[in-house]
């Protein structure tokens, strides 16, 4: 199954050009290695209204099946990605965030500090990932196996029941 991804990097410094975005390209490489495509990719500052607007626009474009955000999931005052995501999703998908945190806890106690969420808007899955390239790719690798089935279910694919 071919999946279409959007990758939204959320970082004040990367948005200002003060620091290169490393996480977004690392996620894109991992996605393309699966044979899937990245149809949208952007960098924004940690601004809740801008994040909500971008997520909503990408969902409404019908050009993505899955949106990955990277950054803004920690405890810093400007880390507002989970709040922005919660305000635009229609249903949460807590199992994805729980699985990522559980797997990350095997590697670092800092996983307890992740406030990442995952949820659904329309027929699009939105998943918050950490801002570090290592954390972002490790978390994505944890949930990669279920993403095709998740998209099948969201799109009412008649073959979705075959993998139950």
Query: Which segments are poorly predicted (pLDDT under 50) over 5 or more consecutive residues?
Result: none
Average pLDDT for all residues: 96
Cα radius of gyration in angstroms: 15 Å
Give the overall shape.
Answer: globular
How are the strands of the largest sheet arranged?
2-1-3-6-5-4
Number of strands: 6
Tally of DSSP helical segments: 7
CATH class: Alpha Beta
The assigned structural class equals alpha/beta
Give the topology string: H per helix, E per strand.
EHHEHEHEHEEHH
Write a structural description.
- The chain is α/β, with parallel strands linked by helices and 164 residues long.
- The protein has a single domain (4-163), classed as Molybdenum Cofactor Biosythetic Enzyme, Chain A.
- 41% of the residues lie in helices and 20% in strands.
- The chain contains 7 helices and 6 strands; from the N terminus they run βααβαβαβαββαα.
- The protein has helices at 12-15, 23-33, 48-61, 81-88, 94-105, 133-143, 147-154, and strands spanning 4-10, 37-44, 66-70, 91-92, 118-121, 124-129.
- Strands 2-1-3-6-5-4 form a 6-stranded mixed sheet, sandwiched between helices.
- α2 (23-33) packs parallel to α6 (133-143), α3 packs across α4 (81-88) and α5 (94-105) crosses α6.
- The radius of gyration is 15 Å and the shape is globular.
